[in-house]
Amino acid sequence: METAYETKKQSPAKAAPKVKRRKTGTFRRDGIKLLLMAIPFVLLAFAFHYVPLFGWIYAFFDYRPGIPLSQAEFTGLATFRAMLSDPEMLRVLTNTLALSFLAILTAPLPLILAILVSEVKVEWFKRLVQTTSTLPNYISWIIVFSLAFSMLSSEGALNQILMNLGIINEPLNILGNSDRVWSVQTMLLVWKTVGWSAIIYLAAIVSIDSEQYDAAKVDGAGRFRSIWHITIPSIMPTFLVLLLLSISNLLSAGFEQYLVFTNVMVADRIEVLDLYVYRLGLVLRDYPYSTAVGIFKSVISVLLLFMVNGLSKRIRGESII
């Protein structure tokens, strides 16, 4: 009499299910299709980011509009020497670095907003906060200026309210105060970008393993201890990467914001490097000097990026680029 084991041993083994594998030619055809789809975007990036580099040649010639470049006098590094001895350059760099450092000081605000939003348990209120804080990012600086002018100008709503309440006797010149222009522009920048920047931290918070919070709750940790010991350490690498990238963009303080908010009373304090290049090139039509300033900004930005990349290797153990 055969045992069950012997019967099972004598029965033919079931064939393992076949795994369908795609042929190498199929992978190759798909790769070619994806490459062809990417070519227009590569050409677009090349046209707007690399072709303008050929215009750097204007910094080495005494070029004036209306004459061919071949007839312009070669000046070598004279434009760069004039730039380094120009007192206007020092003023513009001071404005740029000051506004950039103020923006870096406000870098923790999106992180704090993301933590607060993630702790909200009422779904409709959470969506309301996310929508209202993100919406200003989609408003152009022209509209922001119009809103700020209607609220903060001498005849704006804020001055009218304060004067009707008897708090002030004369209207405040907020947008024309050169002593407060840096702080005012920083607050406007925070209002416009804090919600959008918080999205990155919200994505990092969502990716945290929920079992860590469950274990902390079992150990008796409250919400504040869970935030301090779990949430903040988990999103700190993301914060460091964004902070280091913002440091590498110190000379890119912005353009549209300061262009629309420029007026006679604050022009000397609000003119940043990009706005200075715009004024030299398109307003004064001094193409060699404006090109030299643009080259200076690009070179310094690249050096800062490599310095930040080396700093990231030491702090995080991995590079950004």
Task: Summarize it.
The protein has 15 helices and 2 strands. The chain has 321 residues and is an all-alpha fold.
Characterize the quaternary organization of these chains. Answer: single chain
Global geometry: globular
CATH evolutionary superfamily: MetI-like
Radius of gyration: 29 Å
Number of helices: 15
Order of H and E elements: HHEEHHHHHHHHHHHHH
* Approximate strand percentage: under 5%
Strand order of the largest sheet: 1-2
The CATH class assignment is Mainly Alpha
CATH level-two architecture: Orthogonal Bundle
Total beta strands: 2
Q: Low-confidence runs (pLDDT<50, min 5 residues)?
A: 1-14
The computed structural class is mainly alpha
Q: Distance N terminus to C terminus?
A: 72 Å
Major sheet: size, sense and barrel closure? 2 strands, antiparallel
| Helical content (DSSP H or I, runs of 4+) | 55-70%
Mean pLDDT over the residues: 85
**Number of domains in the coordinates?**
1
CATH topology: MetI-like fold
